[in-house]
Input
Amino acid sequence: MVVTGTHDPYLVALSILVASFASYTALDLGGHVGAARGLARRMWLVAAAITMGGGIWSMHFVAMLAFSMPIPMSYEIGLTALSLVVAIFVTGGGFYVISRQGTSRLQLALSGIFMGLGIVAMHYIGMAAMEGHAKLSYDRLFVALSVVIAIGASTAALWLAFRTTDLGQKLVAAAVMGLAISGMHYTAMHAAIFTAHAPVHEAQVNAKFNVSLDQTNLALTVAGITFAILAFASIASLFERKRAEDALREARADLARVNRVTTMAALTASLAHEVNQPISAAVTNADACVRWLAGDTQISKRLGRLRLKS
Output
């Protein structure tokens, strides 16, 4: 028989909040990737990939914990960890391609497809990690729709990550991306069809409340750790931005001092030229007069008589 699950609305809202916060932090860190060079550039790129990929995975895991069914369910640790690695890897790959200079629209589209398919793989690997007394199958139409949403959200994320600088734009973009990422997850969840191997017993129905309580605590723990990591990344980004602004302010002050010194030197050279020019002319004329007087004997005799009379 087909088993229908339900979603905890509070955990659903929490998962959307996680996705939006992760999107904002990734957009914030993405701005440092384009401005940095060398090792710093690679470090910011890794930080952005971990933030975005880990945030998407965290949103996915919280959303999975928000889903409860009247049969016991658990998660295989190996596949769950693999889904996290896939999310970080595909996000890092997409960010690496789009952060390079001269990226074309074709590269953006291919990066969005690569990242979108990776996020879809992350989701369905996480779904495969579910273990319980039910068979899992999918509605192909909603699976295809989830793939389209994932690619669209990934392309938008890559395009915005290195072009959005204003705080208001970042907040709006983060909210849109958070809703798109969450929409992809819940569309994919709608595609899931759970068929129980045996009739659901009343004891299992009663036991689901204890399971839901454990799921809620685990979801809150995962969300809390994610928020702490994202907050630390945001603070690091804030300090880096402040350091860059201070360095820019100091560079502008140094440039202003150099301009003042250069202007003073040019003014001094101009004044020296204006003063030296008439002095040089006077010296030249005086020298010419001396040579002329020395060469004229009559003028020399007259000057001599004037000296004797005096």
Notes: The chain has two domains: 2-251, 265-309. Residues 202-212 have pLDDT under 50 and may be disordered. The CA atoms of residues 13 and 273 lie 76 Å apart.
